[in-house]
Amino acid sequence: MAHVLGVEEEDIDPRERLDARRRKRFDELIRRRAGGEPMAHILGYMEFRDLRFRIRPGAFVPRQSSEFTVVQAARRLRGRRRPVMVDLATGIGPIATAAAHEVPRARVHGTDISADAVRQARANARELGVRNVTFHTGDLFGAVPGGLKGQVDVITIHAPYVPRDEVEYLPLEVRGFEPEHTLTDYSDLGLDLLGRAAAEGREWLRPGGWLLSEVSPDRVRAARTVMRAAGYRDLRSTRGWTDVTRVLVGRG
Ligand SMILES: C[S@@+](CC[C@H](N)C(=O)[O-])C[C@H]1O[C@@H](n2cnc3c(N)ncnc32)[C@H](O)[C@@H]1O
Questions:
Q1: Is 91's C-beta closer than 6 angstroms to any atom of ligand 1?
Q2: Of 81, 83, 36, 27, which Cα lies nearest the Cα of 61?
Q3: Which residues contact 128 (CB under 8 A, 6 or more apart)?
Q4: I need a surface site. Which of 5, 58, 95, 218 has the fewest CB within 10 A?
Q5: Tens digit of pLDDT for each residue in 74-87?
Q6: Counting atoms of ligand 1 from 1, which one is nearest the CA of 114?
Q7: For a pocket test of ligand 1, which of 120, 139, 192, 193 has the largest count of ligand atoms closer than 8 A to its C-beta?
Q8: Which residues pair with 116 in a beta bridge?
């Protein structure tokens, strides 16, 4: 209703009568939402760390839970002299763009296998005026500039972590509207992509650098095992303001 009226939610006047045009528009939006379409698709935008991202179909819709990954990443970047961050599986770039915005001294690279997502990430960063983030299309580190090997302070990854067999049980607003490759890596536990990122990540990290991985609460133990096997230490599971995910942190 606020969207149709062009006002903030708290400014909706319940006594106001809708004219026929707005009524029609409102009914249409309600019909789409009732069909499972995510709010962010309907509105065409979402707020993430006080930045407004344009949302179009064809990519993963950023989740509010990922704001905590940004907080964790920014905290670690601020303590570094010339901070560098790589956000793997960046999607439309919420984590990379917000971290770059919050730590203007940092150089941030976001990378995703989907060219469409990367196009959207670039467009959003440009529109938001965030200049210290660069996006690349490729498989994990495949398109990250080679000169950054051994120079990265923080790697973040919010991977597609839903186990292959669980995709069909996701809510309609997820499985019906987001591309499958953004939800699952098609492995039994949904941890293969993280495993690869963790293994490859160590040669990109500076000594003492961090890998931050957003995982579902029920996979924290398994993800911890994956990161430990790849050689990470000081492993900790951290919890933000939502109960949807945890951020597993480890030093490379
Ligand atoms: C759960 S979404 C997260 C997107 C973004 N980090 C966010 O929080 O909004 C997972 C992303 O992983 C990307 N992806 C899947 N396989 C990949 C791969 N092998 N290399 C890089 N990105 C990949 C998908 O295209 C998708 O954008």
A1: yes
A2: 36
A3: 51, 52, 53, 97, 101
A4: 218
A5: 999 998 989 999 99
A6: 25
A7: 193
A8: none
